[in-house]
User: Fold these one by one.
Assistant:
Number 1:
Amino acid sequence: MAIEIEDISFRYGRVVALDGVTARLGEGAVGLLGPNGAGKSTLLRILLGFLAPERGQGRVLDYDIRRQQALIRRAVGYMPEGDCFISGMDAVTFASYFGELAGMPRQEAMKRAHEVLFYVGLGEARYRLLDTYSAGMKQRLKLAQALVHDPKILFLDEPTSNLDPTGRKEVLELIRDISTHKSIQVLLSSHILDDIESLCETVVILKQGKVAAEGRMADLRALDYSLYEVRVKGDPAAFRRDLEGLGGRVDEMEDGLIKIYMPEAGDRMDIFRAADRTGVQLRSFVKSRTSLEDLFAGVVGVD
Amino acid sequence: MAVIREKGYTHWDGRLVERRFPWSPITRTGILLAFRKKRFKLVFAATFVPAFVFLVGLYISERLEDFKAMIQGSDRLINIGPKYFVSYFTNDSLLFMIALVLALGAGGLIADDLRHGSLQLYFARPLGKKDYIAGKMSVAAFFVLLYTAVPGLLLVIFKLVFAGSFEFFLKYPWLPLSVLGASLLLTVFFAFYIMLLSSVSKNNRYVFVLVFGVYYFSEILFNILRGVFRTPYTALFSIPANIKQVGAAIFGQAPPLAVPAVWSFAVLAGFCGLAAVVLDRKIRSVEVIK
């Protein structure tokens, strides 16, 4: 296991940020998902040794998070959430500087800085002052400095925040390339479901500092309910009440689509029977794949 | 799917090294960045003017006959001895220029990192808080030593060269040590001073104002209090006065004011201690927003 944590707890003053988090995060891209304030960034900071947990223990690449922080930081590349750069520097100097601080020899760091800047798409802008970079360029720059010393694991904290759709797509494409082809493990923290769903094989969902769900995406999708998407003509309220009486959950979308979560043990014919009983016509009926969004909504308790 | 890669990713086949001084890249980069700033090069060069003036004085002192007409009233520059060195190390123009160089070249060292959130990038590397502070302080130390220890020792050497004998050295064999001591005093104090002020604001323009504001406010306060209380002990409130007191003591001279130099030293040391405490609290890898 790349990362193992057991019973990790941390609080900022009286605010509990993490409460007994236990998880084992394996190979490939792992998603850390949760709403704002769930404790995702705090967990990353504990893994990096920025914060000492009140309770619990953990290992990153077999290094103890309490005692071997320097070794962890050598092996990990960290891309923080907010803007971070050094005023008055160009990208090459910036990337090579952090390569050197990671322990790379000076000339190697400079050579490597050029390589990673080309890789993240900043090759042409590598001698420009960072103060003039756009938000998207700064995101890529942060990725470049995280990659410069060729880490074994990348910690990415909200890597697509503040990006326009095109920039987001490009950064996600880069992360996918890194995690699938470059034998670098990725721990991606995000509150954006699509990012996690499109990149990660494994996910840990945090809610109020606790693990709400954890596992392989494929396994988590196979939940104990079936999702159907239907459109009806008639009174959906009565239809809804009938289905809820059968143990199902019904979400009405703005565009008239109705999502029905039926117990796995139930029969799809129950939906047709409910429609018949309540006098509504089923105009379309699709058995949908349970998405991470549904899982997320279920465990975190939001629509 | 958009492809933005101009070049594929390749693994680095080198090996990360453990440096004896892991903060050395911070210092080197800090010095290089200072020289990229507008106006800094001019100020940097101008700060050597006091050293040049003292060097000229030193030359003239060995050629008194040739410069008789010029040197009337310039005893301070041509009587070469410990007093001459006290004058160099504690003259107002040198202290002002050091403050200016540090305000321009080192004022943003921590302030910019706080402003742009780059502290977490440093601490994501195998660096501790002490390494970070040592790296940043060494930038300030580099500049101060360049204006104190280097010219100070060169003045001693030039004196010997111009005199063509070791008589001066035999008369004051401890002088090089005093030069180093005074340089160390100024270096340590100004390094802590600039780091403290750089860490209390995220805006390096405010830091610039603070560097001179605090320095001269302390001197003004001293003069006001001295006028009110009629005691030289109010000099303990003044940064330049304390530097002059300790500087004189280091060269074995009587302090300019009737206050024990050790008191002034304690004030300066206390200031450095306070700066260390503030730095310890301000430099954090994680900023907690309450």
Number 2:
Amino acid sequence: MEKELRSPVSQRPLIVKDGKSKTGIGATVSIELNGEKMQVQLGKTILEICKENKIHIPTLCYHEDLCIAGNCRMCLVEVEGMRTLQASCAFPVTSPVKIKTFSDKVRKARKHIVDLMLSEHYGECYSCVRNNNCELQTLAKEYGVDSYEFGHICEPRFEIDSSSHAVVRDMDKCILCRRCVRTCIDLQEVGVLEAINRGYDTKISTFMDKPLADVICINCGQCINRCPTGALHANDPSDEIWKAIEDPKKHVVLQTAPSPRAAIGEEFGLPAGISMTGQLNTAIKRMGFDRVFDTNFTADLTIMEEGTELLSRLRKAIVDKDSSVMLPQFTSCSPGWVKFIEHFYPEYLDYLSTAKSPQQMFGSVIKTFYAKEEGIDPKDIVTVALMPCAAKKFECNRPEMDSSGFKDVDYGLTTREMAKMIREAGLRLPELPKTNFDEPFGDASGAGLIFGATGGVMEAALRTVYELVTGRPVPFKNLNIDVCRGMKGIKEASVKLENCKEEFGFLEGVELKFIVAHGTANAKHVMEMLIKGELAGYHFVEIMACPGGCIGGGGQPIPTSELIRKLRVKAIYEEEASMPVRKSHENPRIKYIYEKFLTDGPGGKLSHKLLHTKYLKRGKYIN
Amino acid sequence: MNTLNKIKRTGPVLFSEYEKGSAVKKVLEMEREDILFEIKDSGLKGRGGAGFPVSTKWMITAAANADKKFIVCNADEGEPGTFKDRVLLLEYPELVFEGMIIAGYTIGAKEGIVYLRAEYSYMLEFLENFLEEMRKQNLLGKNICGKGFDFDIFIRLGSGAYVCGEETALIESLEGHRGEPRNRPPFPVNTGYLGFPTAVNNVETLASVPNIINKGGEWYHKHGTDKSTGSKLFSVSGDCKYPGVYELPWGTTLNEIINITGAEDTKAIQVGGASGICLPATEFGRKLSYEDISTGGSIMIFNKSRNMLEVLKNFMEFFVEESCGQCTPCRIGNVKLLEGVEMIEKNEYTIEYIEKLKELGRTMQVASKCGLGQSSPNPFISILENFKDEIFNNKPVLN
């Protein structure tokens, strides 16, 4: 069931899975690496071997999440007996070879390649969003670039495309490594970006060279995370946010999703996997935001709404035999996934839960319930959402997201942009004291926190749905539903509902079957299963657009890799394990809001007005 | 069919008498190993320019374990100054197609694909009709000649990119992708068209096969030199009285070419097309052969009236235009070399910078991903070195 990362034949390294099974070939091969003799596994690339031996090989087009391209030629090494230098990322060792990784020929070639790239790389480092975190800049330093050997382009060749709410494309900084292309086509299977033209005129383009806002981009921003330079970055609203903070009339409220806190430390030089929840709260308050709230609160609210919706769908399907009810129900909290299904599977929108994402729920709750409670005119409230996500910027700008009577969420801010604002404010995040979230949404459950990891929504939903139905906690040790966790592309499992409460008698003995998928390539796979009818009997599907879930979102610190994503996930689960409340329905604030405000309960009339939404059949053809 | 083909000299192999279907009939009676040995004995090497031994290529493809295999005829004759494949396809299509059938039989392929360059689309109808005729004669299709071998040939048109003559770019193009070279390894003989083992052979290579089968590898080996066996088609153009296609044995010297083609006052000969090398008169004693000057067959003759810098500029413009744009050295490097030529032209250069560009050219030769970028600096380096007096003399050098 696992969807393998698609890689074109041309870019598939030669892999010998089990050397012993190949007659006449041993599992290892003896090579000489910079004069040192060693045994290596047959079929490993030179780059992998060098990594294991702590030899640094410069790379640009190589990215461990992506298939091999071998086009930047930075990682060249000398293989004895071969006329040309070999790209170490694309060269599998299958015979005894002698490799030199830093001979004169190699160093000269690498320097030439850096020089050539710089000659076409318009702009200056100090005015670049990726200053100090740019792979080209690093290479220029490594190879001692002290002048532009082959000139330097003085005039921009392209217009910056900032049409998209999420992703800005500055093609003058592009070095054509095509990581974005491989991310979009192979990793995410969206296919918005591709190289066009030939030779010197080659450039990365969209369909018909249209602005990014006018093509089927899902705004996931995964391309940004993998761009080695500043050619791709998010559409940064921080100037407007600073302006709102400075404006005494404005009441600026920040909500923060679970994932930024697990990753923002990386922007301040900390290793991946260190949670900065308390420090981040302090920074946000010191920067002048009036309130800082935890999006986990509305994640809990999402669970209540989405879980209730699932139960009502199940009731309709089982009790009322209503054939118009769509099952399985798909989650809708990932805006990249929502836009993906709107473009690619517009006929299947009814499978989506109508519940808004936690970000948008919070926006409408702040500008209604909170405004009323605090006696603030909602028109003076500015809501900022700190998100690990590029697509959230698009989501908050969807025209239908105004159920409070105002734009529910004014700005979506990425983790990277928040880090920049914190630096601008002169704060050293890791050194700050810890503080709590503000009232009246001070408490959130651990269930909301794990929304950040793939499988988290499912786990949170199961904890609540199971308990609502049976009156008992989910039958998993310490409430940890391990089958939902981990980096497997598509996970599936089931839990049996037994001894149900009377009102849920119709679910007695039902095996609640669910699927968790992350990355839209896996989502596509799940959708194809749905179309083929293979999801009959399944009840709930969680989909996150980004690999790893939100912690791997397009707004998270750069670089990214599976290891980094795993460490961030670990930080989230560790923090969650020690939280006092770990079920959404047990969050006292959730009980409070349903008692005080959403008085007709989850799925009620007011909920539907404020917390639910509808989707657009976008299709693949956009005028 | 076409009187403009200008076959100037026929030879023992390609432009000789051949009875249609004879080699196919013979081969279908043979064991596959024996065919491979026959080809091995002949010493036939790839005629596209790289000179890879045909028997080795076929042996690896034949040995590969796969459900399907393909034989691809590379008819993307794009090297400036070559037109011999065109002549073969128009005059002796039976040799090319039968060569493919023999190859298919040997390696175990049931399908052959001709990748025909877009500029040759005018011959598509003629070739399709020819294939149809072969099908009627049961030289193609099911159970060829009643010997139980199924094989058919399909023609696919290129779209005009020079780089698609590179075999892996050709395969990408066949698969419907951007024509861009792949990483090697894996090589097409293991992982080629649609991931199946694929032997990609030049038109001329395949056309040589039927006569080798009929007359034997030993017979073929008698022609040419020891390491470059057989005869070769040369496309001669430029400043000579008799431009055209010549079948000559390997080992022919450039001086002999000059004599045969009636060239006078020859200053330079560009061997191997734009990506080849440019030789001055002092080198005209050298032999055309894999061991001396290897070539896919393009010979361009320049007489004393030609400005070598202009010649070079023309070649570099070609490479800037035709680089696929995938790898850094070729995409940007060629532009820098062309800029260097323009600097010399405008007399706005320093010798140091030109030397730096030559160094860059040497990097491109070893760092580019495919043969295009690896050979595009050849004219830059060879013309600037071999004709430095003409190019740099009489010009004040800025320093």
Number 3:
Amino acid sequence: MTAQQSPNPSSLRTRFTYRFLRALKELNKHRSATSWPSYRRVKVAADASMAGAVKSRRAWTRAVLRKIRRGHRSPRWHRPLATRELRRKIRKKHGGNPRKLRGSHGEFGQTNELRKLVPGGESMEITSLLGETAHYIKCLSTQVHRQREYFVPPDQLTFQ
Amino acid sequence: MSSRRSRSSRQPGPSRITDDQINDLVSKLQQLLPEIHDMRSKKVSSARVLQETCNYIRNLHKEVDDLSERLSGLLETTDASQAAIIRNLLMQ
């Protein structure tokens, strides 16, 4: 399950950069089209580019894209409305209380924290949460490395 | 029809998660964390790995925010952004 779905860092990097540059170009064209502050738009462009660049669709990429689409419709970024609906869904899926489900693995109390940090993590069972977290970390660090390269003076760039 | 039913009832549900499975995933996670990835010889508790994972993700999020802010500043000044975009295209 994991071996074939782990990202190929070099092609992921290229796909991310391609999408991100295209998004930035669009941003530049329609500079005042939305009411969002511009750093938020750049961040959304980066997140969407990374989620779109992952070839095998993962739970976390779907969650990121869903969140962005929702954000486009409403200027409010976090919509607390979703939580009740989500709870109901989890209860239906696992036949129990989501709170109970979270605490069911005694020593993994920290998973609560992790669920808030990994997109879509609230509704995952423990093994997929850990798998998705590993994949998410890899992609996120690639994204950060790429974004950082914009600020490296040209003569100090290293080709990996 | 009946054979299918009996097979599905015999199969354990998705709730059967072994400790080994979880330990395996946690150790994979540990290898990705710069803080503790080379501490494989010592025993690092799962709780510690998860805590470090949370910290690492939080740091990465902070960095994405920070870099996006700087990048948006770069975009405001058109010349600089053009230069950056061209530079990055050349790097491909």
Number 4:
Amino acid sequence: MKEELQAIESEALAAVEKAEDSQALQEMKVKYLGKKGSLTTVLRGMGKLSKEERPVIGELANNVRASITEALDAKTEKLEREALDKQLETETIDVTLPGNPIHVGGRHLLTSIMEEIEDLFIGMGYEVKEGPEVETDYYNFEKLNLPKNHPARDMQDTFFITNELLLRTQTSPVQARTMEAYQGNRPIKMICPGKVYRRDTDDATHSHQFRQIEGLVVDKNITLSDLKGTLDVFAKKMFGKDRKIRLRPSFFPFTEPSVEMDVSCKVCNGEGCSVCKQTGWIEILGGGMVHPRVLEMSGYDSTVYSGFAFGMGQERIAMLKYGVNDIRHFYTNDVRFLSQYHQA
Amino acid sequence: MLVSYNWLRNYVNLDKVTPEELAEKITRSGIEVEGIEYLAPKSENIVVGYVKSCEKHPDADKLNLCQVDVGEESLQIICGAPNVGAGQKVAVAKPGAKLPNGMKIKKVKLRGVESNGMICSLQELGLDEKYIPADVAEGIFVFPEDAEVGVPVQELLNLDDAILDLDVLANRPDALSMLGVAYEVAAILDQPIELPDENLTIDESIEAKDYIDVKIDSIENNPYYGAFIIRDVEIKPAPLWMRNYLMASGIRPINNVVDITNFVLLEYGQPLHAFDYDQFGSKQVVIRQGKENETMVTLDDQERQLNENNLVITNGKEPVALAGVMGGADSEVTDETTNLLLEAAYFNSACVRHTVKQTGLRSESSTRFEKGVDPNRVKRAGIRACSLLQKYANGKVAGGVVEVDQLDKSEKSVTVTTAKINQRLGMELDEKDVTSVLSRLQFEFSKNGEEIIVQVPTRRLDISIFEDILEEVIRIYGYDHLPYTIPQGWVQAGGLTDIQLLQREIKNYLSSAGLMETLTYSLTNEKDATRFLTPDIEEKPAYSVGLAMPMSEEHSHLRLSLIPEMLRVLQHNVARTQTDLAYYEIGKVFVSREEEITNQPIENLHVAGALTGLWHNHPWQQEKKPVDFYVAKGIVEGLFAHLELDVTFVQTKMEDMHPGRCAEIRLNGKGIGYVGQVHPLTAKDFDVKETYVFEIDLESVFAVHQPAPSFTDIPRYPSVTRDIAFILDNDIPAGNVQAVIKEIGTPLVKEVSIFDVYQGEHMEEGKKSVAYRLLYQDPSRTLKDDEVDASYQEIIEKVNNQFGSYVRS
């Protein structure tokens, strides 16, 4: 009986090895392991065996069954895999054909610049304030130490709507409104971004509409050195950690002293080139210590409080940072311009 | 202000600074030098020559054959200038010389005759044509007789000068004069200053008061008027050095009298005016306001209409000058003038500004009056001019000046302390650092304990408070010495407001949805300003805000909608073959509720989108999806889903929109925007193709938006779906039925979606089939079949009742 079992095993294993499809394997399963299969047939003679032989043969029979089952499973898996491989081979595609395009939108370059500047100052504890674009003469000029008939009003040619209403020429009225709202009894740390308007003919460097961002800090003991340090942080973050800044005296009616800030030229590293007109420096923004009259007009006691303010054109920052050569690009919105700055 | 480096040397020692170094120092201390211009490069080969003889060229009518002594030799030169003549001293470019225009001088033969050089005009020597005196503009320049033969012309003509272009801002009118710049430079270089000669010899035989009287009727606009009388002047060219300085400063020399008044204007910053005394028309100067309907003819031969805002100089009968702006034609100094009435006056800046604005006449004089002149220099400038007229016009200066003087000439005093200066600067300066700056600026000061009391000279109109002195100290001491610090003390958490965050979130969403952000102008044309109004604006009469004086019609009115300018952006791109476009913008619109604006308009933040061309394009897989209404609507729906706000869409009609393809967007029942197709005729107007737009009032969104929705548990129990297809009349909006299903099914029905719409074959005329999928769910348990069935039946019954529909079998 032992020999019979071994014969069945070797015959079955050889047959499985030769099988070519799952149909043949199914037939073999029936032939060897089925109810009428050869293994079952042999085992029917178990009763004739001795008590001692029975467990031995029983174990052998189980081993044979397991061995055949395993071979069948392995072969089934192998055949299935081969069939799948064959099928996948036929599914091969040309991976060099273009993919299904995704419509990519994005922020305007000026929005990116504005958010970058906002985030930089938010990180230093500034809040972001906004205000109306149609302003009154009072907030746009008078509250900023520019009374009617002040010669410095000529510095900004204004779009008037009526004698008292105008398109704001600067974001500074937001500073005046904030100071007034705080009624002179708390410190201020704010920036105010926004659109401003001036009577300029649009050309490569002028736009009748542009965007500014200004900053204002008011507290006890604010110093000019604080302004210098703050602007240095700004310049290094926006233009690179190797940039240097310098202050030059200037004039704005709402600050005293007033300064212009230059940043060392990135292109030539301060050596002098065509970008910086051989000076090694590029003018970036204006600022100064808040004029005591401006503080007083908004209810801040200028003997107790002092402050600094600064302001810049966002377009100018963007133009310098990205080498944009014409301010009109920002407002023409040519898709070929806008799409260059997705990751800006 | 153009500042001649050579002229400046008369007042301050500049031996140790080059023009470039000086420019850098001036810029770093407060007045930006915008450029340096050199008149002409030095050349040893251009010298003064003496024309010994001058004859016609034997073979050319228009050429002259000159023998010219140039010192060491005599040169035969052919000259074509009409004004050349024997006995003249001229500028000769010898062979080998190179002119500023690049021309190289060589020996040549002209019509067979040798020419060994060239006699030059001022233009050829490098001077700007517009500053060259009229008498030599058409020919060669002729030197005064005392010019030395053989010396290089560069120095004689001041061609070795460097001209510094100072950008003088409104606060520093003192720097609109050579003396003012000299004080500034003296302070920067820590040098003394040498003042001009104001010595005057009076002709004792004549008294000014015998010739003129002064009466001021408008003392607040004219607190000082001084009249000087100079008799027997000889009109001729001013000395060469003076003409040189004027040309270097951008003023064209005319004659000695006019040149001297201009020279003093530049030197002192005080405008003067010389009248021809004999043409003045009376012996009395009366200064008064103009009258309505009064006219006068100014120097430029223009008739000017006057009014009571103009200050005028009159002879008691009629105006002879617009005070501080321009003189009159009748009393102008001419070649025939022999006696002068010289005006040195102080005119109120606001008054001059007004006349300038009205007439558009801006001159060297008016600019200085507008910005303010030094009250202590008015009379001195008159004396300086008299002294020069005496010297260079042989005038006899009458004794005394006839004046009316109510001018405040007092100096302000400002008290500072070193401690306060340090506190504001964040520095540790010594007292002597502060006082040394004051001394360099030539500010007088005294001390009282810690206090430094500064007497501010009247030339510095910009200084009146502590902060002004602070600025003087730090700008002269140097900004480079300031340390870098960050504000200490009070701290707040910086950040964006909820509304600002929401704006960024909307930009994130729209950018991710495939739209590109635009930034357009707030100013548009009058017609477009009031198109494409959102329902919240249209609710009440709305007016666009127009500029009083627009620069162009394209930008004359503030927009009430973002769409028109965005359509213009589409047009710009389409015209450049960029046809598939999806844009969005966030910006303000300006709504006035007054026909005649008196108050600030309401400023509402809007978000808008404009789409045209293909939304999706993947040609080789035959996927091509043009933008349509549902693409635009999908973006809007996505936006509100993102913001967790429920909006509804209602068919609507708008003037510039397709009558059948436009929906009003409602939030809590209130119209806040629209989405749809631009009317084909409007699209044609803007020269764009089929275009879809949306616009939403964000203020309405901000009003109801909850920034942080609270957590909702993810459902743990299975949901059940049921489908129903209703046969509806064509004109019943599918969305209305959807809303009713939701209403009836609440709370078990969580979502109702539309998955099929069918019209056409096998469908009754005028009917459509709309298939809805209902999602049933209870967060707390598994639903039973019979309760879902009951709800389902209820929905069918009620919908059929309400809409006259039936279920498609």
